[in-house]
Amino acid sequence: MEALRGTEHRDYWLRQAKSVRTRVNLGWWLETLAAPLVITSLASAAILLWIRRESPVESWLLVSAVSGLVLSLAAVCLALAARRFERIEQSLVRIEAAMMLRNALSAARAGVAPWPAPLGKTHAGLRWQPARLMVPLLGSVALVAAGLWMPIAAGPDRVSHAPEQPQAWQQLAAELDFLSEEEVVDEHYLEETRKRLDELKSREPEQWFSHSSLEASDSLKKSHRAETGRVEHELGMAEKSLAALDNNSASQADRNRRIDEFDQALQGLQNGAMKPNPELLEQLANLDLKNLGNLSPAQLQKLREAIKLNAEKLKQANCDGGECDAALLAVEGEIPGAGGVDRGPGHVPGLLGEETAPLETGDLTPLEAKDLSQAAPGDLLQLQDGEHDIDQSASPLTRGGNTTATGTGGDRVWRESLDPDEQRVMKRFFE
Question: Model's pTM, two decimal places?
Fold first, then answer.
């Protein structure tokens, strides 16, 4: 019985010693790990930010790399701290000192005394310091988390400059959206045109501005513009025909001609690739031109206004692309060359830019060349005022027979220096 009780006492104190040893050794390991962990976390955060800025890397790869680095650092610090780890005998001594057992546990461990009975509360005089323990750990976690998930702009080499789509695509898409919102044409045509546009957009961005792509884009845009202009023109013809047929004073021949024009316009609206609004087209198809009297003036006016509105929206759709802006501005006299008697000359002030103030050059001052040996050809050496040296002596006049005589009057001026023709002209002038 005594032996069994002694074994129980021994196991109890050994468990307490092992618990103390674990706490002490863990403290030594954390103490060794704290400073390297903070330094490594700071360097890792900087490296992670640089990697994320320079190259696209999956987050899980970065987390794996950081985890492996921390585990390696922990293993190295564990090996360094193992030299200071506490053994179980030292833990028993620590318990004895804290509980003042007077070497009872060491003696029992050596077999020279029995193991003392367990006490109500066992302690080794140790107490954790949470601030000293948690600050390095939480700081390291915060640094690594910042390096992994803090938003950062991509580097200049990584900024993806997606090529802007060709302008023809943007204009065509805007026109299709406008026509769809206003519901002025058949939706089937818009869908088909969008499919053709999407086929061009589905190509690689490097091929968007190739010759074939630009040519196909231009062809699609011109085809759409032609269809829009055709429908607008035919709607205009239909509206004018209705306006002429509504005039009771028109002759029968003129009415027949207007009916033919309306039928041609209606046939074009029904058979073309682009068709107007289905409801409007149905109204035009069911219209009996020979019996317009069955329609009230208000109904006929409403139909004409609907036709005008559709035509104006089609014209506006083309103008949204920017091609009618020049024509509209020319009518209003707001662009160069669109002048008129009531719109000004038509030129643009400051066409070549704003005029600058004239330079104040001042008087020209010659430079004085001190060393004439360095003067270059054409350099100004000196300026001085002077008078012509005029010969006041009489000019001799040569006459026939080799006789020299002094000229008089105009003879002294021109008979010596002018040829015969010039002399005759001068003579007639002064006579």
Answer: 0.42
